[in-house]
Amino acid sequence: MGASVSFPASKEKFRESVTALIEVDVSPDDSEFWDELWKIPSSAEEVFELIPPDAARRLRDERFDNLSTLFTQATAQLCQIVETPYNIYFDQALNCVRVLTRIIPFLLEKGDLGEADANVEHLCWATGSSPIPEQGKKNGVNDDASLDSLKNAASGKNFGDEEDDNQEPLALLVVHAAMHMLFLPQFTCDFYDDVPTEDDPSNQKGGRDDIRKRLEEEAADDAARQEAGLGQDRIVFNGVSLLPRPNGIVWTGGCGVSPKELGNDGGSRKYDKNRIEVLRLLLACCCDPLFSPADEYNPLASRWLAVAVAADAPNAVCLFYSLLNIVLCHDPIGMGMPYSAAFNSDTHLRLVELSVQVLIVLLDCGLPGSPESVLNDNGEPIVEFEEASKGGFNMFRTVLARIDTTRELTFCFNGFVRLLKNTFECQNTLLPGSVNRIKFHQELLVLLWKMLEENPMFMNHILTQCDVNEILVPICYLMFQSRRDPAQIGLVHICTFVLLKLSGERSFGVNLNKPFNTRLPCDLPLFSGSHADLLSITLHKLVVNGAYKLVPLYSCFITIICNVSPYWRSMSLVAAVKLVNLFELFSSPKFLYSGENAHRHLALLLEVFNNIIQYQYTGNQHLVYAIVRRKDAFGRLGSLTLEKAISQCNKVYGEEEEPGSFHSESDPAIQTAPFDERGNALDEKGARISPPENADGSGEHFSPTESWLSELKATLPLETVTRLLQHLVPVVDEMCNRKSGVVDEVEILEVLKDVTMVGLLPVPHAIVIRKYQPNQYTALWFTAFMWGVIFLRNQNLPIFDGQAIELFQVSVAEEEDDN
Predict the structure, then answer these.
(1) What b/e readout covers 235-264, taking b as 16+ CB neighbours within 10 angstroms?
(2) For 607-627, b where at least 16 C-beta lie within 10 A, e where not — what string?
(3) CA dihedral in degrees (509, 510, 511, 515; nearest 10)?
(4) 382 phi and psi, to 5 degrees?
(5) Cα(545)–Cα(294) distance, integer angstroms
(6) Per-residue pLDDT tens for 690-729?
């Protein structure tokens, strides 16, 4: 285990060595200087303190030869410890890890995605003499034969050929060394052998009940695969294995290897500190995207990331399962007792946070993995050599897409539910502070999004075999609580993405009819209803009481409600009133004339009403009554003429805005909203939308025209609501007249419940579901959001310096939030 304590004398000695590196040229042959440098005991905090950003850049720009020697020697020592993992060298290896973690981001500032620099290119990627010790070259650690075959097929090289090994660039060596060190015996793990798995015939009991249960599980998995649209297993002779080998080194059980297979030693925390140090180094090696301008970012351009996710990356499958299991096994409540989290180590929580960050970074590059089940003749999951050798192949995305057993999918779902529910459960306790709140919920939502996008089996499983409402409730809570905080706009965006993705599936809308009984620690309006009510009330609140920057999401909010509306069996009174209120808001002159396309929100809302009236009329008297009560709003829209439209527009925009008026209706963001009517999210710059008419600062507002009115009339599906009002308004008026205007709402609802609309409404329209369509703009948004979160969450030990970041604006973020 590495020492975490250093002494003032050693700190001063390290300071002198860093100063010498910056001020004078130090010969690579000065063994006394370099040996002493690596042996000085120093913590990560001291390394970062004594090599500030300015010093690191001076070293790179003014003393590059010194930096080259520093980088080369540190990499060489990591390769040495991988080949000969002796405990006496662990502390020195940790010093190398810390120095590399500090300097690599400054090299990448001028790397593949940053400002190209010939010196950096030559140092990181030139082929030349390898620093791997001669005695270790013939003893590769944990190099799977299938990976060797892949390398031979892809590059024509023999793995054991020393001359070819000498050509490996330093960038590849440092990434591979880090991935080896994450599974180094007695440094970051205990075992280096395979343990019997549950699927191993030698580990299976032969009882009739056991065999029947196993066959039933296999049949259920096959049926689920068919339901998710995946075909039968395809058998090939050989390929790159997707099994964790040796599985005994996986950090904790869950996916890939079950906890009982690892035994009592599975999940050991004694190596957490060393794992954190090496994960920091791997994260630093993968930070290329930070230095690319957003509009130029290419997820295939970084060679550092390509090396880390390649099929021949050491221990890639074991690393995937280790990171995933460490995150999804985490229990914020601990032993289930109040304040039990106080007994948990902060070190382990930091490991969980770093694990999810590294995992989502590795899942964010390259090409998507294929979920198609490909097996070898032994029934083991593999990926074909030809596929694995293609440019852009990502082993992590491939393994993620291939998680397909009921046990593993349930494990993933339960892990997400446990962690996401912590966001409100920690506030629902009688004893203040008795349950700690996790702080990595944003990274967790990115991971959830990746699973929904990459693995069709996971999407199908949570919708058909699990209670997806357990995911919905914490997402709604996070959106509701974050609606007014400009710093949490990104969080609301990603929650919206997840809901939009789920709402495109019929099973999601059906599941929302389950009663909502959870007590949330927020000022959510009181209602008695279903999870569909919770969803619509939350989204209504985000519109009428959300931050200014949520305006571009309005069409997404209504699209989500529209997608689930055909399956909404019984709407609560609160939800019905809120939805009709939204219609009044969007049909108000201030909003309707804020832009040429502002009426499209109304079209979606009318579709919501039509879906419920046509397909779920029985049980939705509250909505019908709310529509009847606000009949004038629908009448005004139906009778709108061009003369009225121009008059209303001039009245609204020809005068100064009144205090307290709707703050975002006239904002150009409504016209440049980065989400179209199909729910396809675009980047915040509105890359797929033409600039608005009044975005040039001229102050001119949209003016209604004949063509605009014709489009509005053709777009708004008013016929169903109009016929409903034509039939029901006289019924309600007659009832009120009969009772001299004193009628209880309950009586009216009972009458509406008994009224039949058969034959009075138009022929039911086809149900239209607007599914999320992946595109490069959403992918770019996720990359920028993910790295922004990682940047902010790594400030205690600032791995990245904001000065050179191009992917997002660090210096002006606070100013933008205040606008």
Answers:
(1) eeeebbbbbbbbbbbbbbbbbbbbeebbee
(2) bbbbbbbbbbbeebbbbbbbb
(3) 100
(4) -140, 170
(5) 30
(6) 333 333 333 457 889 999 999 999 999 999 999 999 999 9
This prediction has a pTM of: 0.87
Q: Which 3 state secondary structure label does DSSP give 420?
A: helix
Q: Identity (one letter) of the amino acid at 571?
A: M
**Dihedral over Cα of 450, 455, 424, 359: its sign:** negative
DSSP designation for 515: B
Instruction: For residue 639, give both structure tokens.
Output: 């009778």
Unique residue bearing structure tokens 């090496």: 278
**Is 90 exceeded by the pLDDT of residue 365?**
yes
CB 157 within 8 A of CB 151: yes
Helix 441-454 / helix 469-482 crossing angle, nearest 10 deg: 130
91-146 tens-digit pLDDT: 999 999 999 999 999 999 988 777 788 999 999 998 754 444 443 333 333 334 33
What are the residues whose beta carbons fall under 8 Å from the beta carbon of 512, sequence distance 6 or more?
A: 469, 472, 530, 531, 532, 535, 564, 567, 568
Tokens representing 484 are 């007014």
Nearest to 674 by CA among 539, 453, 497: 497
- Tell me the average pLDDT of the chain: 83
DSSP letter assigned to residue 428: S
Q: Output the CA–CA distances (angstroms, integers) from residue 458 to 401, 411, 461, in the order listed.
A: 9, 11, 5
C-alpha–C-alpha distance, residues 602 and 716, integer Å: 7
The helix (H) or strand (E) run that includes residue 382 is strand 382-383
Half-sphere exposure of 519 (CA within 13 A, CB side): 4
Residues 511-550 pLDDT 10s: 999 999 999 999 999 999 999 999 999 999 999 999 889 9
Which amino acid appears at position 191 of this protein? F
**How many whole angstroms separate alpha carbon 629 and alpha carbon 613?**
16
Tell me what percent of the residues of the chain surpass a pLDDT of 70.
82
Give yes or no for a contact between 261 and 321, defined as CB atoms under 8 angstroms apart.
no
Cα 743 from Cα 735, distance rounded (Å): 8
Region of 46 on the Ramachandran plot (φ > 0 left; ψ -120 to 50 alpha; else beta): alpha
Question: Given this model, what pLDDT does residue 815 score?
Answer: 44
DSSP 697: S
* Tens-place pLDDT, residues 562-588: 999 999 999 999 999 999 999 999 999
Strand partners, 515: 530
Outline where 363-440 has alpha helix (H): 385-388, 395-401, 406-425
For the record, the structure tokens of 93 come out as 């290896």
Residues 6+ apart with CB under 8 A from 404: 221, 224, 225, 230, 371, 373, 455, 457
Contacts of 110 (CB under 8 A, 6+ apart): 60, 116, 117, 120
Can you tell me the distance from the alpha carbon of 288 to that of 108, in angstroms, rounded to the nearest whole number? Answer: 6
Contact (CB, 8 A) for 409 and 454: no
Residue from 548, 454, 439, 535 nearest 496 by CA: 535
| Neighbour count for residue 572 (Cβ, 10 Å) | 21
The contacts of residue 733 (CB under 8 Å, 6+ apart) are none
Token pair 């409903």: residue: 724
**Residue 300 CA from chain centroid, whole number:** 19
Long-range CB contacts for residues 46-50, cutoff 8 Å, separation at least 24: 46/6, 46/11, 46/14, 47/14, 47/95, 47/98, 47/99, 47/101, 47/102, 48/102, 48/797, 48/798, 50/11, 50/14, 50/15, 50/18
Find how far residue 408's CA is from the centre of its chain. Answer: 20
Beta strands in 438-477 (DSSP E): none
> Cα(156)–Cα(405) distance, rounded to whole angstroms?
36
